Amino acid sequence: MSKVPVSSVLLVDGDIISRHALADYLRHCGYAVVEAANTDEAFVALSEESLSIDVILCEVTEVGSSSCFELAKWVRANRPELEVKLAGGLQMAADTAAELCETGPLAKRSYDPSAVVEYIKRLRAGRQL
Amino acid sequence: MMRPRLADEGRQRIMEAVSVTPAEAPHASRRYRILIVEDEVLIRMMIGEELRDVGYEVLEACNADEAAAILDTGLRCDLIISDVRMPGSMDGLGLLAYVRACHPTLPVIIASGHLPRIKAEACGATGFLAKPFAIDIVLVAVAQALERPHE
After folding, report:
1. Is residue A2, in this structure, part of any structural domain at all?
2. Contact A48/B2, CB-based, under 8 Å?
3. Is A56 a member of any domain?
4. N or C: which terminal CB in chain A sees fewer CB atoms within 10 Å?
């Protein structure tokens, strides 16, 4: 039986600018993306049975009733079929997103991870003005 | 996936109204960018996916504070769809007041299950969606708000 390709990502990030940039990037790579602003929203999405999620990408500094590590622990105990990728910072989140795109449904397309990071930096810089 | 689907006829009507098609949209030089402000993640996702399907670019904010943060970046936004009751330092009407003060020409559609339309419009809303709503109603309201001349 062939492995079903990863096609849906639950992106958990408390920073709307980073979240949007990463989600936009992943969508351009062909993923369906569910955006959660915190772990509470992530649990709501995970509890929705009709919602298909293959991978969780969680930025560890986001806020919520539970930490990202508690979310990962819960997923491993209750939804072991899901892959959880924890990202410890913006650079790591961008790298992880780029890694997903390299191995994901549109693997033939090439993307420059550094361009994504630059995009996010520009958005962040604009917000600080 | 849980997304309700529009009938083909309704989808075609909406796509004609916004003058884009899913096939054309990724290559268009400028797509309308819509900011959805909604604290219910599944509702936000459903609206976002439907709007993306017909060719819009969509940003998702979980509350008014996130919406204000994204507006403060100077990132172009063509329309806001906002819930009213949300956690954070301001609700949807607070966000509407902020937008009217700082981005007076930016159209805002207010979505609410308890607020009367007349109050939303009196506060400066461009459009109003009574919750619960069908997704095709959202698409029609979006097309109308974007076509309406900005005052």
Report:
1. no
2. yes
3. yes
4. N
For the domain that residue A78 is a member of, what is the CATH number? Answer: 3.40.50.2300
Gap from A125 CA to chain B (nearest CA, Å): 8
pLDDT, one tens digit per residue, over B49-70 is 999 999 999 999 999 999 999 9
- Say how far apart CA B84 and CA B43 lie, in whole Å: 14
Which domain range does residue A78 map to? 8-128
- Complete domains list, chain B, with CATH: 30-147 (3.40.50.2300)
**How many other C-beta atoms lie within 10 A of the C-beta of residue B125?**
26
Domain count, chain A: 1
Residues 49-78 of B with CB under 8 A from A: 49, 52, 59-63, 66, 69-70, 72-75
Model-level pTM?
Answer: 0.78
Name the one residue in this structure whose structure tokens are 């943060």. Answer: B69
The CB density around residue A71, as the number of other CB atoms within 10 Å, is 26
CB contact under 8 A, A126 and B70: no
Q: Which residues 6+ apart lie within 8 Å of A107 measured at CB?
A: A101
pLDDT digits (tens, 9 = 90+) for A50-84: 888 999 999 877 667 788 888 999 999 999 999 89
Residue A1 included in any domain: no
